[in-house]
Amino acid sequence: MLTLGGNKVPVSKKRAILLNLFKQAMAGQPLAMRELNRIIEKVEAKEEAHARAEAEAAEQDARESSRQDEACFKHLVELKDKQTGAWAKAAAEGRDEPANPWPHPDDILIDHAEHKARVRGPFCADNVAGWEHIRRRRDHYLARMVLASDIDGSSSGILAKVWLGCLAEGDRLLPRRWQILHDLRTAIDRLLAMPRSRFEAIVAEGAARFERIRPDPPQSKTSYQRQNRVWGPLVKALGYRSLRHFERACENGIP
Question: Domain check: are 53 and 72 in the same one?
């Protein structure tokens, strides 16, 4: 026990010795002052060594990360050349695609100025289904947009913009060769050429698949607030209280 400020407090033996040493040094005792300085220098040296070790580790991590980035860049550049040759050979032989079509050479994006490279599209056969899902969902929002634009009523223009936003969000994720925003008119004309009943059936089928409210995984409150800020003005203009209210209406087939 040690008395501090008139109160007895429990302290370890080591801390009690240090407090007593500090008290003696403050009273001007030379031996206590020298010992206290020795302890301070030892602590500072340990902190400096720790800081140096952290800096060296960070530098090593940066070098390793740079090495990996360089290796990845080189690999993707070589892979793009290899896949370009494979596709050209398949075309020359009259085949639709090479034996190993993935990744498609157009999906390997090389930025020589920034010395960066990435793949936007399926990297292997196992990835294709996921990318196809994104494309089908994008196509559903295109159909939704076209159908909303074709409905009589003052809200149709706003509703079409809602679906256009959903379409654009999915389209920008897809490989360039699958994107449609750069030629949206052609994609719209293909849908308008369909019989109305077939077109509406496609929309209904897509709504059941892509507009269900899934309990898993739940969105974080922050994520949902961010979406509400983006889509809030549009859905409120349509007469809905919030994005959640709009999603539930869609789940029930409205609009």
Answer: no
Please report, as a single letter, which amino acid is at residue 13: K
Distance CA 186, CA 212 (A): 29
Residue with tokens 């849908």: 191
What pTM value is reported for the model?
Answer: 0.63
Domain count, the chain: 3
Q: Are residues 225 and 138 in the same domain?
A: yes
3-state secondary structure of 183: helix
Domain of residue 26, residue span:
2-64
Asked if residues 174 and 138 have their Cβ atoms less than 8 Å apart, the reply is yes
Can you read off the two tokens belonging to residue 254? 């409205």
| pLDDT, tens only, 95-113 | 999 999 999 999 999 999 9
C-alpha R_g of the chain: 33
> Can you name the residues that pair with 3 across neighbouring β-strands?
8
**pLDDT tens digits, residue range 194-212?**
898 898 898 999 988 888 7
- Residues 58, 150, single domain; the answer is no
CA-closest candidate to residue 107, choices 170, 182, 173: 173
Alpha helices (runs of H) in the chain, residue ranges in sequence order? 13-26, 30-92, 128-149, 156-171, 184-192, 196-210, 221-237, 243-251
* CA-based end-to-end distance of the chain: 75
Whether residue 10 is found in the same domain as residue 29: yes
- DSSP class of residue 119? E
Select from 49, 13, 18, 11 the least CA-distant residue to 35.
18
As a whole number of angstroms, the distance between CA 212 and CA 136 comes to: 15
SS (H, E, C) 197-226: HHHHHHHHHHHHHHCCCCCCCCCCHHHHHH
